Amino acid sequence: MINRKTLLELGWILPSIAIPVGMLVAVIVSAFGMNIGVPSQAGTIQPAAIDTTPPFDQPGVLRQVGPNQYEVALIGQVWSFNPRELRVPAGAEVHFVATSRDVIHGLHIEGTNVNVMLIPGRITRQRAVFREPGQYRFVCHEYCGIGHHTMYGTVIVEER
Amino acid sequence: MATARVEVNPSLRTVHRLTGAFIGVALVALAIANVPGILQGYDRAGVDLYPYARPVIQSYYQGLTIHGVMNVLVWTIFFLSGFFLFVTVYALDRPLASTRLGWVAFWIMLAGLILALVAMLTDAASVLYTFYPPLKASPLFYIGLTLIVVGTWFVGANIWMTWRRWRRDHPGQHTPLAVFGTLATFALWTIASVGLAIEMLVLVIPWSLGLTTDIDPLLARTLFWFTGHPIVYFWLLPAYVSWYTMVPRLAGGRLFSEPMARVAFLLFVLYSIPVGLHHQFSDPGLGGGIKLVHTFMTFAVFFPSLLTYFNISASIETGARWRGGTGWISWVRHVPWGNPALTGQIMGMFLFVPGGIGGLTNASYNVNQAVHNTTWVVGHFHLTVGGAVTLTFMATTYWLIPYLTGRALWGRRLAVAQPILFFVGMTIWSETMHRLGLAYMPRRTYITQAPYVPEEWRDPMILLGIGATGMIIGGLLYFFIIIMTLVVSREPAQVEVPLPRPGVESKHEHVPALLDRWRPWLIGSLVLIAIAYGPVFYQLLTHVSTVPGQSGLW
């Protein structure tokens, strides 16, 4: 039964299975071994209640939640981020807690894994560590109306 | 290709008009779609042409909506409807179960298209082709798109009934591969489109009509992507049907392995739906674990494309060797490159290789965060739907339009150059889009007016302009060739349908019974959907969070 054609087919099929399996293992190791996660369930919030619900009542204010760990709230709205600029210490683990006041927005902070959706009614959490001091641009990357391309901000990472 | 046009069965001619109507609308849609495409191409290159387009196109985002909807929903779906109806009738050598139902489907879809187009052209629906609530567009837009989907169900039902009658008359024969692939496509699409249908009929249309005030954006989005990923197989599989059944013949050979082809189609039925969350890795409100399940399923659906790559390459090589080709590589010179119906499809296949590999990156769970919603993604799907699918459909018209109209293709040599030009433009453009995505350039953004463009994007943006220019010339050349064929060509067409003659079965290979049955595979598909989406919808329906709609934002 094993003729040349079958061998050729097997020679293609086996690596075709092995390569995706290898990639899957790499993804699982990086996700759970190295703790590089994606956003998960983090609760709901009514857009009308944003201004009175912590931590969104104080957007941009860094709050220490652990040794070298901070939490900061960020709100997306047409067509700006609140705040447009925030300061964090270099080397610290920063937990971003974000939501949207109106339509779906995106949040992508350059050089980090903070590349998430801000969906009205939902809370998004993602963490980042800024190792190098400097300025990191963040932009809205989901279409949110005619002024979408003007929606951006800056994370200023300060030396300690 | 030198044989005269063969009239297989005069009663089949009724499908020619229907196919012609679908493909005619598809081509008009393609033309409309890519006028704003030109503006977008140069916007990404740093040249703002929108002020000159203002009488017709009010904004970048209105243009982008037209570009997306008309390309990925109209051009693809109208073309594949006409193509599949034709393939079914030809390969089964019998008329459609109901020609009337075929026309009903066409008129429903055309009515839907007109409604959606009116909404888009009047700037009443600048919500992009994903129309994520709570952005709220005119109800005409949603109703129009829904009608197009409803029309595809009628097309699928017609094909299914035609096949049932054929099978009743041909007991014991296995379904011809072209029809098998067609049925697989409509099987997965019919299941997949339920998500979009529920989103439209239950959530979005009542809400846009003002019958409800609030909507759950995440639930709508999840229903959208339930359909939104498998829809890419709805467009891709007609190209695969052509690659598996027509390309081997156009290349002068035959399909390397028919059972392998059937396995590929069945794996698409199995795996193409429980993967939609790979568009939502960055979304809140969905569990991390279930997202990983969708990564696994997406890797699984990559496998049939790898099978296809092997099988088609081997078939083209077989053809070239039969034509006198030898050696490890030099057989390539014996591929009949002078046939535009073949060359365009091979160019599409070349673009599909990086397209598929990039797709794996996108589906890789946390790795997605490096590329999500950047221009990387736009580069990726222009290789697949804008490259592989579009070039294959264009190349198909190079034999199909002469066959339907009886007019020989005008400018055969130009028609060989056309996909090559498009290929070169697309390669430059797409590679640069991928690279800029890794440099954090966002997609869906009026970049000439964005205040934050860094210096490091400027040089690659020039390459985007060069690549876009190549694609524009390749695209204009295509329409020029088609118009000249329809208007100027007087020579009678000498084309055959590049399919095995009806009734002449491929007797080369034994097809195992399991590969000619549907029920086990459809059940498997439903089980995988339940595993992948059961927890998602349970979670969403127990944590509903509705918000008011937002209109007037554009």
Any overview of this molecule?
- Chain A has 160 residues and is an alpha+beta fold.
- Chain A has two domains: 1-36; 47-158, Immunoglobulin-like, CATH 2.60.40.
- Chain A is 19% helix and 36% strand.
- In chain A, the strands form two sheets. In chain A, strands 1, 2, 3, 5 and 8 form a five-stranded mixed sheet that branches. A five-stranded mixed sheet of chain A has the order 4-10-9-6-7, with no helix packed on it.
- In chain A, β6 (105-109) and β7 (115-118) form a beta hairpin.
- Chain A is elongated, with a radius of gyration of 21 Å.
- A two-stranded antiparallel ribbon of chain B has the order 1-2.
- The N and C termini of chain B lie far apart (52 Å).
- Chain B is mainly α.
- Chain B is 67% helix and 1% strand.
- In chain B, α6 runs antiparallel to α7 (217-228).
- The longest helix of chain B is centred in the middle third of the chain and has 35 residues, at 288-322.
- Chain B has helices at residues 13-44, 50-53, 60-92, 99-121, 139-169, 177-208, 217-228, 230-245, 247-250, 258-271, 288-322, 340-363, 375-405, 412-438, 458-487, 519-542, and strands spanning 214-215, 547-548.
- Chains A and B meet through α1 and β7 of A and α3, α7, α11 and β2 of B.
* H/E series of chain B: HHHHHHEHHHHHHHHHHE
Helix content of chain A: 10-25%
Distance between the termini of chain B: 52 Å
Task: Please report the first level of CATH classification, the CATH class of the largest domain in chain A.
Answer: Mainly Beta
Query: For the report, how would you describe the main beta sheet of chain A?
Result: 5 strands, mixed
Shape of chain A: elongated
